[in-house]
């Protein structure tokens, strides 16, 4: 059964919630799901590759893209610019894929405005103490951790804006739940290709 | 994470679609999901047990229950009465369970009217030819098969009234998809217990 058009899945989560691992596993398990790679002015971290993790561009180029209306949504986070390219998303949807987006709540709101049928998933750590512990273990600096926790507080309070909420207290369970959300959304009657059903009805 | 209240899942499907097997497997895989057993005036088939498959009652008793307003929905199908008891559903919900209901489209409509948050799932065979083949293999009589296929035609055309549509072209896949629907619905933000989130927010 084919859906009438690709579905956009947005995942938002505080850093340290396991979001990156969950996204990687979703892409592996679901061949029709493709990540929309964001543009950013942030410098690549060790191991990050241009065109894989992000398109790494400079601020001048980024501001040019803003001016050209190339971004569906963009945001400044901790002094770095992040943006989602309209063309990348539409190319993926037009080639019959579902799209996975890893963006923050402000970006999620913009996506929902433009694509009301998109599916918004928020991932939480089991507790704030656990999140702080995970960030310490990643050797983040105390002021970075403080900033992040403040940001979590601002975001979590808006959880009702999202369609689904996952608690990552067990990574495998969280991945399975996220896959279930993707599978279930694909089975919704309002997403079903009318031609498919008309063909079925003709056999009766 | 606990949901603020139990969820009602309604499964409708033409006979021969594998609905009974799917329901049995869902109940096994999901301990918090309980079947709401219907009342019927139909005679038990070989192997069916009172209080397990149905509550088998006579027409006088059934009509008394209708008069008392004991049923959320009831219907006459092929000359037999089937009804869903209000008390059974509410007892299950109040004891912290989700409820599985195996009823037809008319019953599903009544459930949705009374419980707008209920989740309606429609299961289809891969094709009408395949359904006819399955019914022949069950040694159903030709006029029974004709009746059933006519009924399918009437029902399928209303598929958009349901929230989800499954095609059972592979039993294991269909069971997995039905389980995903149940899991995903439990993760919807609008079903989340507000106390749970308030407690989380307090830790920030």
User: What's the number of domains of chain A?
Assistant: 1
- Give the CATH topology of chain A: Rossmann fold
Low-confidence stretches of chain A: none
* Strand composition percent of chain A: 15-25%
- Derived from helix and strand composition plus strand pairing, the structural class of chain A reads alpha/beta
Query: How is the quaternary structure best described?
Result: homodimer
Instruction: Please state the average pLDDT score of chain A.
Output: 90
Helicity of chain A, as a percent range: 40-55%
Describe this entry's structure for a reader.
The structure is a homodimer of 204-residue chains. Chain A is built from 8 helices and 9 strands. Chain A is an alpha/beta fold. A 5-stranded parallel beta sheet of chain A has the order 2-7-1-8-9, with helices on both faces. Chain A has a 4-stranded mixed beta sheet with strand order 4-3-6-5, with helices on both faces. In chain A, a hairpin with a 2-residue loop joins strand 5 (71-77) and strand 6. In chain A, helix 1 (19-29) packs across helix 7.
